[in-house]
Design brief:
Protein name: 3-methyl-2-oxobutanoate dehydrogenase (2-methylpropanoyl-transferring)
Number of helices: 12
Keywords: Oxidoreductase
Number of strands: 14
Pfam families: Transket_pyr (PF02779), Transketolase_C (PF02780)
Order of helices and strands: EHEHEHEHHEHEHEEEEHEEHEHEHH
Distance between the termini: 46 Å
Radius of gyration: 20 Å
Strand content: 15-25%
GO molecular function, one term: oxidoreductase activity
Helix content: 25-40%
Organism: Streptomyces flavidovirens
Length: 329
């Protein structure tokens, strides 16, 4: 590691730098989406890329998500590696048919002969004061679909390296970007050797209980662990990083040590990713658990107006309440 290779970057800028590197390294990489070119995206994640790489590599598309993904599938069939931006999470559903029935199935349908190296970037989650269709967390809908990889970084370093790995993948990757963390800064070593894309990471060691989260909620769980430490409670925090596949081995190792697990995500608890994790870990760790696996997440309701989103989103108090309930068994 050299000093020059380490920078402190906002998460959005780390993705921008990763996309820049991919465009510079591989002429088959293309970026497509609504306003990704001249504007640089509504969150400025693609800022400056069209200026430097041209309109044939960074392409402003019509407002037609199904057409954007369908075009990306055709480009992938011709050997390109398209990176598609869906402007907001709730805008992805016009393209859901293309993603689920075509993109996810092409590899299996062709008995492995056809690769689909497509990355679909989706800014997701709340915390920015936006209305419905701009603050959703639909990751479980995609994690349920065989043939798709689904990941979400929680910090700038992961954003940079996971994007590199997603673009290099021959399988389609749904890349969920936690929009309320876009401006959080952390160090990025652009010469590091990254770990596997779908491996979870223990970001804080603990002995009394495991908090498992991904994307925007990792920071909340780290804050909860720090607050609990002031009361003498030792919480381990696991950043899942990937929702499909899920690194159950890392979670299991942690739970066998702490004997308790709370899974946290912004998405509604009902049929959320936490349900699958709770079921699997209960099966794997039944004789280690000293409390049922608990889940913390959003409510099973449409996303509320901005004034109510702090009540809707799981925060520090709801996480600590679940910790207390678990430790109370």
């Amino acid at each position: 590691m050299s000093v020059q290779s380490v920078q402190k970057l906002p998460l959005a800028k780390a993705i921008n730098e990763s996309l820049r590197k991919a465009l510079d390294t591989d002429p088959k990489v293309l970026i497509m989406g609504e306003d990704v070119g001249k504007l640089g995206g509504v969150f400025r994640v693609t800022d400056g890329l069209q200026k430097d790489f041209g309109e044939e590599r960074v392409i402003d598309t019509p407002l037609a998500e199904s057409g954007i993904v369908g075009t990306a599938i055709g480009l992938a069939l011709r050997g390109y590696r398209p990176v598609v931006e869906i402007q907001f999470d709730g805008f992805v559903f016009p393209a859901y048919d293309q993603i689920v029935t075509q993109l996810a199935k092409m590899h299996a349908r062709s008995l492995g002969k056809i690769k689909m190296p497509v990355v679909i970037r989706i800014p997701y989650g709340g915390g920015i004061g936006a209305v419905e269709h701009h603050s959703e967390s639909p990751e479980a809908l995609f994690a349920h679909v065989a043939g798709l990889k689904v990941v979400s970084p929680s910090n700038s370093s992961d954003a940079y390296w996971m994007m590199q790995q997603a673009i290099q993948s021959d399988d389609p990757v749904i890349f969920f970007e936690p929009k309320r963390r876009y401006w959080d800064k952390s160090e990025v070593d652009t010469e590091a050797i990254p770990g596997p894309l779908h491996t979870a990471r223990v970001v804080r060691e603990g002995s009394d209980l495991t908090l498992a989260a991904y994307g925007p909620m990792v920071k909340v769980c780290a804050e909860a662990a720090a607050a609990a430490a002031e009361e003498g409670k030792s919480l381990e925090v696991v950043d899942l990083r990937s929702m499909s596949p899920i690194d159950f081995d890392t979670i299991q190792t942690s739970v066998e040590k702490t004997r308790r697990l709370v899974v946290v995500h912004e998405a509604p608890v009902f049929y959320g990713s936490g349900a699958e994790i709770a079921a699997r870990i209960t099966e794997r760790c039944f004789y280690h658990l000293e409390a049922p696996v608990l889940r913390v997440g959003g409510f099973h309701a449409p996303y509320p107006p901005a004034r109510l989103e702090e009540e809707y989103l799981p925060g520090l108090d709801r996480v600590l309440d679940a910790v207390d309930r678990s430790l109370g068994y």
